[in-house]
Amino acid sequence: MSGVRCVVDGGIARITLARPEASNSVDMAAARAFGEAVDQAGDPAVRVVLLTGEGKRFCAGGDVASMMAAEDRSGYLNELAATLGDGLLRLTELAKPVVAAVHGAVAGAGLAFVLTADLVVAARSTKFLMAYAGVGLTPDCGVSYLLPRAVGQQRALEMALMNRPLTAEEAREWGLVTEVVDDEAAVSRAEEVAAQLAAGPAFALGQAKRLLRSSWTVSPQQSVTDEAETISRAIGTDDAARLIDAFLKR
C-alpha cells in the first residue's frame, strides 16, 4: 500500500513506483517508502539499481490530491518535497549505476527520477513535462539543479517557463535520456542494460559514476586528486586484475 516496491535479485535492486491508479504520483507514504527502497539498494550485494513504474505512466510527480487534502498544505508539501528529495539525493550518491525505464508520461518530480538515473531507456511514446507552472507550483526534488546540467540552461528555462513538453526523441536529442525504443521494449531493454552492468566491474563502474556526478561541485584540482586516488584503489580489485590480464593476453 506504500506505493513503492523494492526487490533485490541477481545483484539488481528493482525499485518500482507502484501507484498506477494515481499515475505513480508520490504522496508522503510513497516518498517514505522510496527512501526505504534506497536504503535496500545501498546493500553491498546490490551492484545496479533499476527504476520502473507500473501502469500507463511512469510518474506524474507529486500527488496533488494529497497536497490539497492536507490540513496544513504548505507544511505537508515542504515535508513531501524534502523527503522525496532526500531519497533521490541518496540514490544519486550511491556508488553504483542507476538505470531507469520510463514510459507514458514523466512530469514534475517524475523528472527528478530521470535526472537521478545514470542511464535512461524511454518508450517512444513517452512525453516529458515540467508541469509545475501548470498548477502554480515550482520545481522540487533537485530538478532545478539537475535539469540545466542535463539539457542546458536555456532549454531548462523553456521547459520551466513555457511548460514545453518533450517527445522521447527530443528528450534524447537534448540529453535527458540515453536511448529510445519501441514502447513494448522499454522495460526489457532497461533490464538488459542493468544485467550488463551488474556483470561488470562493480568498483570501476560505481566510482566512475561517482566521479562524474561529483565533478559539478569540486575544483579541477580536487577532481584530479580524487581520480588519482580512486584509480589507484581500482587497480587492486579482483575485477581489474582479471580484466587487465585478459587485455594483456590479446
TrEMBL record:
Gene Ontology molecular function, alphabetical: catalytic activity
Similarity-based family: Belongs to the enoyl-CoA hydratase/isomerase family.
Organism: Thermobifida fusca TM51
Ranges annotated as spanning the membrane: none
InterPro entries in UniProt: ClpP/crotonase-like_dom_sf, Enoyl-CoA_hyd/isom_CS, Enoyl-CoA_hydra/iso, Enoyl-CoA_hydra_C
Name of the molecule in the record: Enoyl-CoA hydratase
